[in-house]
Amino acid sequence: MGRKLIFSNDEESNETVKRYEKYLSGQAGGYFDVEELEDIIEFYLRNGLTEDSLQALELGFKLHPNSSELKLKRAKTYLATGDNQSAIQLLDSLADKDEYEATLLRMQILLRLGRNEEAHLLATRLWAQGPEEDADNICLDIASVYSAQQEWGKALSWLHKGDSQNSQNTDLLFELAFTYEQQNAFPQAIATYNRIIDIDPYITEAWFDMGQAYYAQQNYNKALEAYEFALTINEKDSLTLLQKAHTLFQLDRFEEAIEPYKEYGKISGDLWQTSLFLGECYENMGEYDQAVIHYENSIDLYPENYDALIGIGICLLELRRYELAQSYLQKAISIQEDSAEACTYFAEALTGSGQLDEAIRNYKHSLRLNPGQTSVLVTIGQYYYHREAPDVPTALSYFLQAREQDPEYEYINAFIAACYFTMGEEESGQAHLAEALSKDAEAAQIFRDNYPQHAHFLSQNPT
């Protein structure tokens, strides 16, 4: 059978790594056979710890100086560090240059070097020379090499070839579904997960991955259904509980999301993030005091928690506790100085406590960080229009910028009309007022409430 490049993270391998790390610290003996060393090196490579894999190789060559298997792992380590030439030279030095894994590694190097045709010829030869009963697994391994280089079309071609050899190979079907997802072909991915479930309906990963595919399409009801099937198989799967809670949150079913979030926290021990999620649920339910409690719990566990600080700031704004909100939002700004969001909320808190000039300075700073905030442009425009000494031309400039960004922004034409009327440009005012009234029947009342001095112009624009 073809040896897969997808390394199995089994319990025995983990125990080997633990024993090896005890050896490094002087707590255990130091003999490891070749297979154990392969597992250790693969573990480090899989986790991006190339220095550790090199250290393990050094021990390996001391114990087994002529091991071709360890030479292959060294070639793989060279590949991980981007040293393609050293990797291919080492492969050329092997006694059996056509060994299965060596050929797959050579393919990967050739693809990295842009020698695609040579890689294709190797893949074709590997498949043609392999035993017929392993044709599907050989196709899977070849596809994995192409996937590692993000050559999704080539990977898909080999996976289809393998699927035609054995339509019951669930490992291959998982890779096929994953490859579809990389191409944003989510309906095909979902159909493939359904094929896996038809083969074995108790494969939890198939239900979970199908839920993820639905979630990526924002089909939250279908995603929820898939996660719930996964939980009937393993009700303690923390990641599935988390995704179920996220899905309920996306469906605005905030109260229902609370329990799976709590379960996730108990199982995973990820308490600071769980508290953050719970705070967001209570915030969206309008239970601001309860939300603050959970956000505070999150901050206690992780003091630099920007999202929780913002969450508390928003809740305190809703509770009209503006000065207290300022202290939390200032802390959020100190953590993320380039956050337009934090600056905008801080400006709202300043506005609430009557510090209008300081609020406008912060709104403008927020715009410099993120010019695309239409609502902030409108807020600044309203400030200049309604302040004690109005600056109507400046107000108009901000309203016009807002309209350019979002022509459908609610009542924007009414605000522009008021500016033109104030400046004595009645023709332009009437044109914008007419447009405002044609788009929203409530625009007349908004205009009357905000600009009573110009209400008489409404009679010339009957609704």
Q: What features would you describe in this structure?
A:
- The protein is mostly helical.
- Among the domains are: 1-129, Alpha Horseshoe (Serine Threonine Protein Phosphatase 5, Tetratricopeptide repeat), CATH 1.25.40; 371-463, Tetratricopeptide repeat domain (Serine Threonine Protein Phosphatase 5, Tetratricopeptide repeat).
- Helix content is 74%, strand content 0%.
- It contains 26 helices and no strands.
- It is elongated and about 95 Å long.
- The N and C termini lie far apart (78 Å).
- Mean pLDDT is 91; it is low at 1-9.
- The appropriate CATH architecture of the domain at 1-129 is Alpha Horseshoe
- What overall form do the CA principal axes indicate? elongated
> Could you spell the SSE succession in H and E letters?
HHHHHHHHHHHHHHHHHHHHHHHHHH
Portion of residues in beta strands equals under 5%
Provide the structure class.
mainly alpha
Could you name the ranges where pLDDT drops below 50 across 5 or more consecutive residues? 1-9
If you average the pLDDT, what whole number results?
91
Helical element count?
26
Most strands sheet: none
